[in-house]
Design goal:
This protein is 41% helix and 15% strand. By secondary structure, it is α/β, with parallel strands linked by helices. The mean pLDDT is 96.
Length: 316
């Protein structure tokens, strides 16, 4: 993993898109490229014009490197004091504050401490790294102001597949164990099942297992999402799965590169998630994030007949 450093400008910034997703009003990000290296990640496409990639001489769509700014906590301290209209901050929205390179500088803990040192702020932690448990002592002091969430994209028995797609993230087992520990400590938790990949985590049985786990962790909200079909995400996942001999899962990835197949996958995924949430929890807790532009008109109409828990993120 090559580590690049680039100075960013923002500390705490407004995030209208994540507010629409009902995740947070504000964002803190500690860099522009995360070292977890998830093949489906859309951050490269989102931030491709950011000057940090030019400064570091790297391609935003490639992997094997990270870009971070160790001075981020200083700007977060400044903004946490300066901003008068306070609310919920997501740490982080485009990178991971507990990715290996960020851990070396304790960026997650420093940013968390900077935010919580000022009254009126609450924090939604989102990470794929079990290292966040190192901050539980700090979170316990502000337990009413912090939501703990670890992205869980599969059930533990297929962690070998997830390691191919999310090569530098913690194992599914470790992420789940960290969520269990957070709940046992009485911390506020929420579930993040994003994305639920085809052929990997979209079957009724897998979804049932994940929702039951979320309920056991006493989550306040349940977020779910299909994989984004844009850019090279599906191709990269398919090629990696093929390389390691997971042909069935690779075929599932290849199929949904076609609009009608992706639309059908999303429609079934929503129905399966809704069914399981209604069975084991409260449908009011569901937040299914949906960009509908690639849905067929037939599938969009089918979803709208029962869109409980669906957050429509673009005009259809």
């Amino acid at each position: 993993m090559r580590i690049h450093y680039a100075e960013l400008k923002s500390g705490i910034s407004r995030t209208p898109e994540f507010e629409r997703k009902k995740l947070a009003q504000y964002a803190v990000n500690v860099g522009t490229k995360c070292g977890h290296g998830c093949l489906y990640c859309s951050t490269g496409a989102m931030l491709r014009m950011h000057k940090s990639f030019r400064q570091c001489g790297v391609n935003p769509f490639e992997f094997g490197y990270a870009i971070l700014d160790p001075k981020t906590p200083q700007r977060v301290v400044r903004d946490a004091i300066r901003i008068q209209k306070r609310g919920l901050i997501q740490l982080c929205t485009t990178v991971d504050a507990w990715a290996p390179e960020a851990q070396e500088h304790q960026l997650g803990r420093k940013c968390l401490n900077a935010i919580l040192s000022q009254p009126g702020w609450t924090v939604r932690i989102l990470t794929k790294n079990a290292a966040v448990r190192s901050e539980f002592d700090l979170i316990e002091k502000y337990r009413d102001r912090v939501l703990v969430g670890l992205t869980i994209t599969a059930t533990p028995e297929i962690n070998d597949i997830i390691e191919i797609i999310e090569p530098n993230a913690s194992s599914i087992q470790d992420r789940m164990a960290t969520m269990v520990e957070a709940a046992a400590r009485g911390l506020r938790t929420y579930a993040m099942f994003c994305p639920l990949l085809p052929g990997i985590a979209d079957s009724p049985e897998k979804i049932e297992q994940l929702i039951k786990f979320a309920v056991d962790c006493r989550v306040e909200e349940i977020f779910a999402e299909p994989v984004n079909p844009r850019a090279s995400a599906l191709r990269l996942c398919k090629e990696a799965l093929d390389l390691w001999g997971y042909q069935k899962q690779a075929v599932a990835m290849e199929e949904i590169r076609h609009r009608s197949k992706w639309s059908h996958y999303v429609t079934e995924l929503i129905q399966n998630v809704q069914r399981s949430v209604r069975k084991h929890s409260d449908i009011a807790k569901l937040r299914f994030l949906l960009y509908p532009s690639n849905l067929t008109s037939e599938d969009a109409a089918k979803i709208r007949k029962d869109d409980a828990g669906v957050i429509w993120l673009a005009k259809d």
